[in-house]
Amino acid sequence: MAYTSVIPVHRLDRSIEYVKDKEKTTQKADSLEAAIDYAMNRTKTEQAVFEDTIGCTNENAYADMVATKKRFHKMGGVEGYHLVQSFAEGEVTPELAHLIGQELADRLLKGQYEVVITTHLNTRHYHNHIVWNSVSMADGRKYHSNAKSYYTEIRKISDELCRKYGLSIIESDQKKSIPYVQWKAEQEGKPTWRSAIRLDIRESVQESYSWSQFLKEMEKRGYTWKLNRKYVALKAPGMERYIRLRSLGKNYSEEEIRGQILQPKVKRIYQKTVQIPPKRKLTGIQALYYSYLYQMGVLPKRPRRSPYAIREDIRKLDQRIEQIEFLMKHDITTREQLATYREPLQKQISELMKERRKLYRNDSEDSGKVRLSEINEELKNLRKEVRMTVRIEKHSLEIEERLRKAEEQNQNEKRVEHKEKESQEVR
After folding, report:
1. What is the model's pTM?
2. Over the chain, what is the mean pLDDT?
3. Which residues contact 225 (CB under 8 A, 6 or more apart)?
4. What phi, psi does 82 have (nearest 5°)?
């Protein structure tokens, strides 16, 4: 989730010392110079790697912006804008927060305005500060911001980026939207979290010869029922609310399921097998991902039944396969190796960003435009790789937790089966 706000900057004569005063750092910086200085405060960014600029230099960002204003004779009015993009606690890593800030600046300003992008890590809610010149360095046009442009540009782009990286968003009515991965899956007809419920229903139907037997088969899988009502509802393990059977789509109402139970049993294959044969014995997070895909039931050799804690993650199957392929391609087995792999990529990004800033000042040359296009493509690919390493670090921890829960579920089921067996023997 990212909360955004935009502050117009009107005054140039405010002292830089205003925002350096630790007692005043939580207040609004009214000048462009103060806004830039605040954004690039090292005590808040903690690391220089989380500072970037477009069209100007880190050291002389304010002077570069003033030079642009003088060049186009536009020293009055709103001098710049200070955008704050704040993320929910624990939802992003510093690297991902900064990448989102860079992409927001790129998409919003399209390389037309000098801009400073920093990520502050001094609070639990990591947040980006994006400060840009109100005068375009390309043609001298002034940037205009109002309530309409905020929602149609800044808020829209920020929300799209949050969806892109699987983060939650805040809608205009302050209600939390569904995660982007779920929204995109539904738009494209791909599996969502409901797919696991549908799969359990189909498997239970194949095991049942009566409605009561079907209900028991679902209960074995951890489901609970609400039966004494007009529309039958069920709740899957881990869900907070019940959902109606009929809401799962065509063929999932009580009447349809009762009819399917009475039909002859036919062996069906509901999911395409994914082939990821290991070339050697896997270790570390490669083995973790392989075990996870096995438990999901997508490898040639499948478990007797996939635990719900893992099966509900089927909507992210494509991501998981892409991630293990990345790990095997680059022979990465630990999170430490992921960090080591990412470090030179970040340095390359930093160098390319510096080169691009220099070229922005000479964008009239055809050779410069060609190189800018090449740099943008290189940045796109490098950032994609960096994002992949960040995601694997985060998701591998989630996978470990899901596998732990699955093992607990498996042990609980074994204990229940053992008790039932002992009870039957006593009888």
Report:
1. 0.39
2. 76
3. 215, 218, 219, 232, 233, 234, 235
4. -125, 105
